[in-house]
Amino acid sequence: MDETNLNRRGFLATAGAGLLGATAGCASPRTFAQQVVDIDQDDRADGSLYTDVYEQTIDSVTFLRVSGIEDPFSDDPGQGQGSGFLYDETHVVTNEHVVYGGDEVDVRYTNGEWAATEVVGTDFYSDLAVLEVDNTPDDADPLPMAEQMPVTGQEVLAIGNPFGLEGSMSQGIVSGVDRSLQMPGRSFSFPNVVQTDAGINPGNSGGPLVNLDGEVVGVINAGGGDNIGFAISSALTRRVAPALIENGEFHHSYMGITLETVDPRIAEANDLPEANGIVVTSVDPDGPAGGVFEESDDQVRRNGDAIPVGGDVILEMDGEPIPDRHALSTFLALSTSPGDTIPVDVYRDGERTTVELTLGARPTPGESDRGFPP
User: Fold this and answer.
1) What is the mean pLDDT of residues 51-62?
2) Where are the domains of the chain?
3) What Pfam families does the record tag this protein with (predicted)?
4) Is residue 24 helix, strand or coil?
5) Mean pLDDT of the chain
6) What are the catalytic residues?
7) Residue 1: its pLDDT value, please?
8) How many CB atoms neighbour CB 269 within 10 A?
9) b/e code 66-82 from CB counts within 10 Å (16+ = b)
10) pLDDT band with cut points at 50, 70 and 90 for residue 370
């Protein structure tokens, strides 16, 4: 866990404790959602389409309390919190970083019921985790996962527990699709990420980003700044979550290369016909790409920047165009598995040629991958 996440968790724990403490003096504490339901129907506003989606989904969105978190920067265990949603009749999906390091996770539904959980599987490389819950309310149905890829401009709603404020909803649009998201301190990027301008804050992590049909477009991962938030796509979640339930883990395809997207400067320095594809800057000789790809063997400086010279330029994989590193991440994440052997079209020594690559499995992450001190 990096220091940013730790600070965020510490804040969330404090905020959550304050909110829970505010109800401690009540004989029968109720959530905000329950209080609204208790109001006479004639005294309620008409609401909107967003209200309809909220009422359709909110019973399936959960508050997560994570206890006993090991803090690498402290000897004292901490407490964190986040959001989740009912994926099937007995499982809740959330973020891996929400539950990582905790020794106990409890969920609370919006009707006030608590449920004990067991973490059945986590995946660092997609930031997804699945919990098995010991009970679900009768009115909580699994949220359907969207099967269509979202499009920029599509309206979406973020539902969860920002700053411990349970049952909150914010509205926005899909601001971008197929992003690659690199979190602070992590040595890789999450693939196929959905960007949104819906309000996302600490505590929203793990909750659903839904479309106006109440389908999960993505699992909220983080807020990047003003009007920028991110979610792990439904497409990736539909691959990873069943494997976590079945096997407790998911294996991602791995090539063992470092790369850069070809831009006009790289194209010019390498006499490429166009600025397209990704250039292989280094190859792990012991990885899947060892002996398959040729790496960059030189560089030039342009306005102080190092420009790789030489090395294969990957153009297509298994017939799919790979115009940039985002396309490569999405292709590997959604269309391949470790052990697959695929044809790769590369530009090498002024000619286009095809090589065969057998994909490996991404190595188990170490503490340094999380930004922890060595």
Assistant:
1) 97
2) 3-133, 155-247, 253-361
3) PDZ_2 (PF13180), Trypsin_2 (PF13365)
4) coil
5) 87
6) 97, 127, 205
7) 41
8) 17
9) beebeeeeeeeebbbbb
10) low
For 3-133, CATH number out of 3.40.50.150, 3.40.50.300, 3.40.50.2000, 2.40.10.10 equals 2.40.10.10
Greatest alpha-carbon span in the chain: 77
What is 155-247's CATH number, 3.50.50.60, 2.40.30.60, 1.10.10.10, 2.40.10.10?
2.40.10.10
| C-alpha angle 343-261-4 in degrees, rounded to nearest 5 | 115
37, with CB counted inside 10 A (0-12, 13-18, 19+), is middle
Give residue 298's identity as a one-letter amino acid code: D
Which residues are CB-contacts of 120 (< 8 A; sequence separation ≥ 6)?
A: 91, 130, 131, 132, 244, 245, 248
133 close to 115: Cβ distance less than 8 angstroms:
yes
Q: Are 150 and 331 in contact (CB under 8 A)?
A: no
Band of pLDDT at residue 41, cut at 50, 70 and 90: low
**Residue 274 CB neighbour total at 10 angstroms:** 10
Residues near 282 by Cβ (< 8 Å), separated by ≥ 6?
Answer: 257, 258, 295, 296
Secondary structure in 3-state letters for 142-181: CCCECCCCCCCCCEEEEEECHHHCCCEEEEEEEEEEEEEE
Q: Which helix (H) or strand (E) holds 137?
A: none
Cα 340 to Cα 202, 227, 253, 254, 279, distances in angstroms? 38, 39, 9, 10, 22
- Across 26-33, average pLDDT: 37
Q: Residues with Cβ < 8 Å from 269, sequence gap 6 or more?
A: 300, 302, 307, 308, 309
For the four alpha carbons of 51, 105, 142 and 155, in that order, the dihedral sign comes to positive
Q: How far apart are CA 74 and CA 130, in angstroms?
A: 27
Residue 17's pLDDT is 38
**Token pair for 180:** 């690659």
Q: Is the pLDDT of residue 38 over 70?
A: no
